[in-house]
Automatic annotation (TrEMBL):
Classification of source organism: Bacteria, Bacillati, Actinomycetota, Thermoleophilia, Solirubrobacterales
Single GO MF annotation: oxidoreductase activity, acting on the CH-OH group of donors, NAD or NADP as acceptor
Protein family: Belongs to the short-chain dehydrogenases/reductases (SDR) family.
Keyword Oxidoreductase among UniProt keywords: yes
CDD domains hit by this protein: SDR_c
Occurrences of domain Ketoreductase (ranges): 11-190
Protein's name in the database: NAD(P)-dependent dehydrogenase (Short-subunit alcohol dehydrogenase family)
Length: 309
């Protein structure tokens, strides 16, 4: 007999990069389940608008995941406002596309700082809360690029491989403690991060709501590996059993080697400029807001750290 899904009503959930994309969709899905949700984002103004639109008491806070002090303050404010943290979704991430040898040191460092160091920092800060309570769920958003290196996104792939390895190691360390972990590994998601990407044969974009639904499902029925779509997990596992020349030939046949390497640079220009090369400063004392209300609608304002993957 299948276990009943866990009730998420009243659970305190913090989501990084929550102003749009996967983060926003996840906040909306969890709020509908009755969870108490806080979204953190470098673009605090957009986070506030998102909270207003989602309603359900969603709390918006400024957050720079590359700054440990900012991350610590974010979680402290979440707990002060909503109560002890039950779930952290490390979603914030960026992606640069282009030949590896042409990638600047600045762009490479920024991806590592946000995609990896941000997840490391958030994971530690969450576990410091979860372990003494013998409860909590750490959700780290990686990518299918965390299972196979993708041409045209070498540094991005490296950060996502690292997030997969990090979360697997954490899982082994906290086994038996009551703390749970999940790694979310979607194919490209229809957010600004995926602007201008090519489609592989038989593999299209998934929508942010699909990733959000998978995250909610992993919280209700905990599991470690969360592929989106779920069927891609079978493809990844099958590929791991193939000899490398066969695996690479299949990738070329499916044109997965062109998804990033063949990206339209002009279509990605705005995203790359703002998310990858841009910067933003948080106010000295970010204020949280909790807003009731309006239904969800799509925003056109770009967020520097909210796309997720």
């Amino acid at each position: 007999m299948a276990k009943q899904p866990r009730n998420l009503a009243g659970k305190v959930v913090a989501i990084t990069g929550g102003a749009r994309g996967i983060g926003r969709a996840t906040a909306a899905a969890l709020a509908r389940k009755g969870a108490k949700v806080a979204i953190g984002d470098l673009d605090r103004e957009l986070a506030e608008r998102t909270a207003q639109e989602l309603g359900g008491g969603v709390v918006a806070l400024g957050l720079d995941v590359t700054d440990r002090g900012s991350f610590a303050a974010f979680l402290e404010q979440v707990e002060a406002r909503l109560g002890p943290l039950d779930v952290l979704v490390n979603n914030a991430g960026i992606m640069h596309v282009g030949p590896f040898v042409q990638e600047s040191e600045e762009v490479a460092t920024r991806q590592v700082d946000i995609n990896l160091h941000g997840v490391i920092t958030g994971s530690k800060l969450a576990l410091e809360r979860f372990l003494p309570r013998r409860a909590g769920h750490l959700v780290n958003v990686a990518s299918t690029a965390g299972k196979a290196g993708v041409p045209g996104g070498a540094t991005y792939s490296a950060t996502k491989h690292a997030v997969v390895g990090l979360t697997e190691a954490i899982r082994a360390e906290v086994r038996g403690s009551g703390v749970e972990t999940s790694i979310v590994m979607p194919v490209p998601v229809n957010t600004q991060l995926a602007a201008g990407l090519q489609k592989g044969r038989g593999i299209g974009l998934v929508e942010p709501r699909e990733v959000a639904e998978a995250i909610v499902g992993a919280l209700e029925r905990p599991r470690q590996d969360v592929f989106v779509p779920r069927a891609i997990g079978r493809t990844v596992r099958l590929g791991a059993l193939m000899p490398r020349p066969v695996y690479e030939a299949v990738g070329r046949l499916m044109r997965t080697d062109r998804v990033l390497a063949g990206a339209d640079a002009s279509a990605r220009a705005a995203y790359e400029r703002q998310a990858v090369r841009g910067s933003a400063q948080l106010p000295a004392a970010p204020e949280e807001i909790a807003t009731p209300g309006a239904g969800e609608r799509t925003e056109a304002v770009p967020s520097r750290e909210a796309a997720g993957d």
